[in-house]
Specification:
With 138 residues, this protein is mostly helical. Helix content is 76%, strand content 0%. The chain is built from three helices and no strands. The protein starts with a helix and ends with a helix.
C-alpha cells in the first residue's frame, strides 16, 4: 500500500461534495436574484412603461430541472475541452472554454434537452451547445 493511497481515496468524496455545494449555492443565488428582480421590475414598469413584461435570461430555466443543469454543464464543458484539444492538434487559434458560458448555456441546454429527450436529450443538447460555443468564435 502506498503512503498517499488512503488520502487520495478520501479526496474524491470531499471534492464531489464541494463541487455539489458550489452548484447548489449558484442555483440558490439565481433563485434569490430572480425573486428580487421581478418585483422590482413591476414597480418600475408601473411608473414608467405600462404593461411591460420582464425579460428573464436562461437562469429562469434552472429551477425546473436542477440535475439537468449539472448534466448540461458537465456535457458542454467536456465538449469545450475536447474542442480545445482538437484546435491544438489542428494548429488553429485555441479557444479556451469559459466556465461561466458553459454553465449558463450548457445548463439551459441540459434543461431543455431533458424536457424533450430525457437524460439522453440533456447530454446531447448540451454537447451540441459545447460544440457551438467552442467553434463558432473561430
Amino acid at each position: 500500500m502506498k503512503p498517499n493511497q488512503g488520502l487520495n481515496q478520501r479526496a474524491g468524496p470531499i471534492q464531489s461534495a464541494t463541487f455539489s455545494a458550489g452548484v447548489f449555492i449558484i442555483l440558490a443565488g439565481v433563485r434569490v436574484v430572480l425573486g428580487e428582480i421581478v418585483p422590482a421590475f413591476k414597480g418600475i414598469s408601473e411608473r414608467l412603461v405600462k404593461d411591460a413584461k420582464p425579460a428573464l435570461d436562461v437562469p429562469i430555466t434552472f429551477t425546473f430541472a436542477p440535475n439537468a443543469v449539472l448534466i448540461g454543464f458537465l456535457s458542454s464543458f467536456v465538449r469545450g475541452l475536447l474542442g480545445m484539444g482538437i484546435m491544438a492538434m489542428a494548429g488553429t487559434t485555441i479557444v479556451v472554454p469559459g466556465v461561466i458560458a458553459h454553465f449558463m448555456t450548457g445548463g439551459a441546454s441540459g434543461v431543455i434537452g431533458n424536457g424533450v429527450g430525457g437524460r439522453r436529450g440533456a447530454v446531447l443538447g448540451a454537447f451540441v451547445n459545447g460544440l457551438a460555443i467552442t467553434f463558432l468564435p473561430l
